[in-house]
Design brief:
By secondary structure, the protein is α/β, with parallel strands linked by helices. The protein is built from twelve helices and 14 strands. It folds into two domains: 224 residues, P-loop containing nucleotide triphosphate hydrolases (Rossmann fold), CATH 3.40.50; 74 residues, ACT domain (Alpha-Beta Plaits, 2-Layer Sandwich). The site of magnesium ion has 5 residues, from helix 2.
Amino acid sequence: MMSTDSSARAEQPVVLADGLAKAYGEVRALQGVSFSIPAGSVVGFLGPNGAGKTTAIKILTGSLAADAGRASICGYDVERDAQAARASIGYLPENNPLYPEMRVDRFLRFAWEAQRTDGQSETREQAIERVVEATGLAMVFRRAIGNCSKGYRQRVGFAQALLHDPPLLILDEPTNGLDPLQVVEIRELIRQLGRTKTVLLTTHVLPEVEALADRVVLIHQGRKVADDSLDRLSAAGEGRLIQLSVQAPPAALEAVLQGFGAEIVQLRPGAFGSADSTRALLRVERFDAAQLAALSQAVQEAGLALLELAPHAGGLESLFQGLDRHAPVGEEAVQ
Ligand SMILES: Nc1ncnc2c1ncn2[C@@H]1O[C@H](COP(=O)(O)OP(=O)(O)O)[C@@H](O)[C@H]1O
Ligand SMILES: [Mg+2]
């Protein structure tokens, strides 16, 4: 039975998030976010500050319980199989909390002990040698963390995340607060690590995903608004994207569009400052008058008032930049 179990796990996505929701009092930080990440990809979790990225990351890493939905890592449920799920993740938290007075070598020994699990194939010193090599820490190995540059401190955080050689790395804003040269170096490190590991990294800046990710999950105000390969999102300006807004909730528009056979790239509430309207971005096979006419007819036959139907220039940048300008009303403002 063991082999059946492990081969079933091998086919599981590395990350599976299904309908994750979380509120902090009145603030609905996550409102039903689902995505899955196959092995071997580098996924950028992109969204403006306050979008809910860190909240989602905390749920995936088991440091926060979701109000609704479920998540698994390599097939292990983050709540029911918390230990196995956590053992599959190397986690670099936002703002990389470290002990400034502790030496790098001592911190790594301490972190290894804290993370130790059964069945590790390496000794502590072997693991430390491997991560020091992988992150280029040899120069500062015996230095106090507080006396290292911010770039090196970030490397210490990476080294800590790699200690038990997990298949998945979760990096929360890994280059935030670094100077431009350090950003280049840390991105190069992430690129190297991405050759052998699945990586989920969050960022609030577009260039970061463009530099590193092959796929983007775009979130805004606690909802996923786009999920596609970077190539497809960036090359979306091939003239086959349509922006469509209706006076109806998202579910009503979604039902019409499913019947129509258009691919929904983005679907979110609140077009033109009206809370009960929806704006969708669609990818269509053909882009011509007949297509537009058919869409307009389908929407109207379903009894939805059409607010907008136009070609969309596309591109990840315009998707991302468009978020704040059309913030839905009646929800928490983005900080
Ligand atoms: N511990 C908390 N208590 C109250 N509100 C919180 C807490 N953590 C996050 N929030 C709020 O939840 C929303 C999402 O935050 P967060 O997940 O940190 O977003 P991001 O990482 O995308 O910037 C924001 O409005 C934020 O202010
Ligand atoms: Mg955050």
